[in-house]
Amino acid sequence: MTWKLLTTKGDVPAGRYGHTIVINEENTKVYLFGGYDNAFGLSNDLYELDLDTLTWSAIKVIGGVVPEARYGHFSVLRKDKKLNAQLMVFGGRGAKNVLDDIWVFDLKKSKWFELPVAGEKPQGRYGFGAFVSDKELFVFGGFDGKTVVFDDIWAINFMSSKRKWRHLGNGGFLERYYQTITPTPHGIVIFGGRRADHTLCLYVEEGINRGKHFQIHELRSHIKKLTLSQNLAEEKTIPLWINAIQDVSNKSSIPNLSLFNKKYGEEICSAYTFQQNLVTFGVDGSFFSD
User: Fold this and answer.
1) In the chain, what are the domain boundaries?
2) Helix %, strand %, coil % of the chain (to 5)
């Protein structure tokens, strides 16, 4: 197996992540929705790629009703009772909060509409695993964007005239988000994901500054842009801690974290522990208390 980079033309969408891509049954069209672009932020635009000509087209939506811009959502192509192709989108993370809505785009009419659902529904989330089987959408886990990593399983028959979510418990499913999930004839295969939550958002996943690189000497002003708590911008502990991480050989430069941890209810590991974890595991495990 070898990879090949294809050259496309037309209305080529900006680079992004957290978007979704789906392909039609004929394997001739690909549809891209949403995602996050570091230059322009969240997106709710919709593109079509013709696989025969490798030409992108920005789909023009008729009417002013559109779903909120998002990333980390789920999309699937389905057909309505008249066999018209539709793109269905669930959940994701928006500009201000996580989402629990279901939207449908009618490819024939070029219109969006929100799918009404009665009764209890899953809490808003992103980074969850999902798939469609026998006209039902199944959702596993996800993250609420604050502290909760879900271990629940939900299902909904989106073709029913009385659409209602069903809570299926967890069935032994361990909490996680950003996992992959694939239904097979032998059962559901789930791989990977993250189980730890984020209790201190020093670097929040929203805003135009996310994804950019910042210099240590400008850290205070950047923290003010990146954090939910403006008070953190005045803390001297964070720049000292980051500088200590960079200076592997100088243990004396490690700041005292006890006052900071007590004030914010956090347990930031020492810079030396961070260094050792980085060398040992090649990851930033134990960055914070997660």
Assistant:
1) 1-115, 116-197, 216-281
2) 15, 30, 50
User: How many residues appear in the chain?
Assistant: 290
Residue 149: DSSP 8-state: B
Q: Which residue has the higher pLDDT, 39 or 136?
A: 136
Beta bridge partners of 184: 187
Bridge-partner residues for 35, per DSSP?
A: 43
The pTM is what? 0.69
Question: What would the pLDDT profile of 105-127 be if each residue is shown by its tens digit?
Answer: 999 999 999 999 999 999 999 99
Q: What is the average per-residue pLDDT within 57-70?
A: 94
Which residues pair with residue 130 across a beta bridge?
Answer: 139
Which residues fall within 8 angstroms of residue 59, CB to CB, at 6 or more apart? 46, 47, 48, 110
pLDDT at 287 over 50: no
Query: Which helix H or strand E contains 58, and what residues bound it?
Result: strand 55-58
Amino acid at 112: W
Q: What mean pLDDT, rounded, does the chain reach?
A: 80
Q: What is the CATH number of domain 1-115?
A: 2.120.10.80
